[in-house]
Design brief:
The chain is 23% helix and 27% strand. It is of the alpha+beta class.
């Protein structure tokens, strides 16, 4: 019996070696590896390799690629119309200070969440509404391996990560839901209702260490009994700070 993957491939247009589609797919990936992108899009590697060689996907996978890459289906399939969706970006306030002639579509308005992540002993999450949106160059976000639609901003509160992330720093957070938690990265941690920013170390016994750069703060161990109270909504990829 044919598998779901074979069924999907059977509905594809067999356009082998289509350089134009292959080139558009490379642009859509914005430097992300095909394996990582295929995983985010929910597409088997074997299928995605065919697309990377110029095979036109069937409608199901075409939609998945366009949605994941934040490009239009018309542009991806036939290079018709704009590459990026039009009309999804609100008007950019003049106070942001764009240069004359900047195209709003070149920017992503990243939401700033009304919660501070504690770099200290823990800050109870009282609210999570979006308080404002700040503009970042879309190409800059993609160059960092980020999906613009899954970015968020939080403020660091406390000095446990000083001097790497200072008190008051604005943190850009990768909030993709399918991330693999890797040791040695900073993450936003929610533990027992507290929102924290911690350096994470995964141990071979399954426990997780929450580390601080400031030696005044001890390492916290999240064992198997606490794991159900732990969630990790995102990875900190950049931190600016108030001057």
């Amino acid at each position: 019996m044919a598998s779901e993957e074979n069924s999907e491939l059977g509905s594809e247009l067999a356009v082998k070696g289509d350089d134009s589609f292959r080139d558009r797919l490379v642009l859509a990936l914005s430097g992300e590896t095909p394996h990582a992108f295929a995983r985010r899009a929910g597409i088997p590697d074997s299928s995605f390799r065919k697309y990377a060689n110029g095979t036109m996907p069937g409608l199901k996978h075409l939609i998945s690629i366009a949605t994941t890459a934040d490009v239009t289906i018309d542009w991806l399939a036939a290079e018709r119309g704009p590459m990026r969706p039009v009309g999804e970006h609100p008007q950019v306030p003049a106070a942001i200070g764009f240069n004359e002639g900047d195209d709003v579509r070149d920017f992503t308005l990243v939401p700033r969440v009304g919660v501070s992540a504690s770099a200290g002993h823990g800050l109870v999450a009282l609210a999570e509404e979006i308080t404002e949106r700040l503009a970042f160059k879309t190409d800059w976000l993609r160059d960092m391996g980020l999906s613009p639609r899954f970015c968020g901003l939080l403020t660091c509160s406390g000095d446990s990560q000083d001097p790497v992330i200072k008190d008051g720093a604005l943190m850009l957070v990768d909030m993709r839901p399918d991330q693999i938690i890797r040791s040695g990265n900073f993450y936003i941690i929610v533990l027992d209702g507290d929102v924290l920013v911690k350096l994470v170390n995964r141990r071979v016994d399954g426990t997780i260490e929450l580390l601080s750069h400031n030696t005044a703060y001890p390492t916290e161990i999240v064992d198997s009994q606490k794991l159900d109270k732990l969630s990790i909504p995102g990875r900190v990829v950049w931190a600016g700070q108030k001057l």
